[in-house]
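Data deposition worksheet. Section B asks for the primary sequence of the deposited chain exactly as it was used as input, without tags or linkers unless they were present during the calculation. Section C holds the resulting structure in C-alpha cell form. Section D is free text for depositor observations; keep each observation to a single sentence. Incomplete worksheets are returned to the depositor.
Section A, Depositor: J.P.
Section B:
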Amino acid sequence: MTGSEAVFRQAALKSQLIGKQDLEEAVRVLRAGDSGQANTTVEIPDEKLAYQLVKMGLVNRWQAEQLKLGRTRFHLKDYQIIDSIGQGGMGQVFKAEHSMMGRVVAIKVLPKSRSTDDAIANFQREIRTLANLDHPNLVRAYDAGLDGNVHFLVTEFVPGTDLRHLVRQGGGMHEQDAATLVRDVARGLGHAHQCGLVHRDVKPGNIMVTPEGMVKVLDLGLAGFLQEELDLHGSAANDSKKGRIVGTADYLAPEVIEGNPATAASDIYGLGCTLYYAVTRKVPFPGGNSVQKCHRHLSERPMDPRRFRQDISDEFLGILSDMMAKDPLQRIQTAEEVVERFAPWSGSRLSGAVESHAASGSHSQFARVPPPGKDEMPSDSRIFPEMEPPLSGSGSLRDTDQPTGGSQMTAPLPPPRKARRSQKLGGLLQAIAGWIGAMSEIQFYSLIGGLSLLVVILLILLFSF
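Section C:
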C-alpha cells in the first residue's frame, strides 16, 4: 500500500463517513471482481476504491474527491457536509443535510478574517432579527452556531441560478421579466425594511431564480460581516473604519460611498443598478478599479440603456432613473413604491424560458436582444436619462453630473487617473470605450483576432528585412 492510498483510507475512516467494516467490504468486492473470489494480493488504487464507495452509496462523488485529498471534516454539529456550493470573498458555502431531520440546507462558513469579537457580536444580533423574517422572496435563516473555531450560518437551500449567471449566459431580459423579477426582489426587501433590516449589498449575484420561477434574495443583512470592505480613501493604515465601506462597487449608492450609513434608499439604488444590468447585460459603470467606479457613481451618469436595448420604453426607463437618483431624497423611497410603479409591466410569474434556463443552468436564448446596428444607435448626446420629452420626477441622472445632497465625505475620494488627463484625451478614451461596449461578443472577438493577425504580419515583415 502506497503512502497516498494510506492517506485516503485513513481520511475515510477519520471522517466518520465510512466505518471500518464498510471500507473492508468495498475492498473485498473489488478484489473479488467478476469471479466472486477475493484475491488478497491485488492492490486497490484510490480511484477504484472511491468509485466503489460511491457505488455503494456510502459517500457521494464530491466527498470521495475530498477524501482523496486527505480532508476529514464533513460535519458541523448536526449537519453533514455533502457538497460545495461556492467560495469567494464572503467565505465558503456548502450544501449540507441535517443528520436527524434529513433537511437539505446551505451552510455559509464565515471567514476567519471577519471573526473578530465585535463582528461576531453584531452577527449574532443580526441573526436574531433574521430569524424573525418570513417572506417567500427572502432566503430563510434556519440556524447559526459555532463548532470549534468555525462560525457558520445555516439557511434555506435554494436550487437554481443567480441573476448574474442568468443574464451573462442568457442575455438581457425583456421589460416584463425584468419588472417581474425586480418586483419580487422589492417585495422581499420591503418586508426586511419594515423589520428594520437593510441588505447593504443588493446585486445580481445575491438574487436567485429557482427552476419554478421563484425569486429569492440571498445574504440579507449580512454584507457587513461577509463582504470584504473597500478601502476607498486610502486611510486604512491610520484608521480601521474611516474611509472603509462594505459592498460591491458596481452597485454602491452615492451616500454610502460618502461615508453615510446604508438605508432602505441605498438598497433601492442597488436594485436600480441591478435592473440596469438585467436589461442591458452591463453594469452602469464598466471598467476601472473600485475607486474609479465609486467616483463615477458620485459624479457621472450611466450610458443610456437604449444604446444596448432599443425596446425599452420611456416610462420603464423613467422608473429606472428614479431608482438610481444620486440624491437619496430624490430617489424612490420605499420598496413598496417600486412594486407599485412596476405593476403595469409585471407578470404573475417569470416567463417559462427564464424558468427553464434557471433549471438547466445551460446556455439559453431567453429574451436575448442583439445590440442595435450602427444606423440604429442613438446619438451620443442622448445619455441616460436625457430624453425628449422630459420624464416626470427627479431621477438622479437627469441633468445631474455632480452629486447632490447627502453629507460630506469623511475623507475626499481621489479622482481616478483618467480624470487628471487632458479633456481631449479623456473624451477620446470615453468614445472608444463606448464603441467597444456597444459591440456584440462576436464583433469584439473578431476585432481582437484581426488586430492579432495584423501584429503577426508586421512582425514577419520586420524580421524579413
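Section D:
The longest helix spans residues 441-464.
The CA atoms of residues 320 and 408 lie 26 Å apart.
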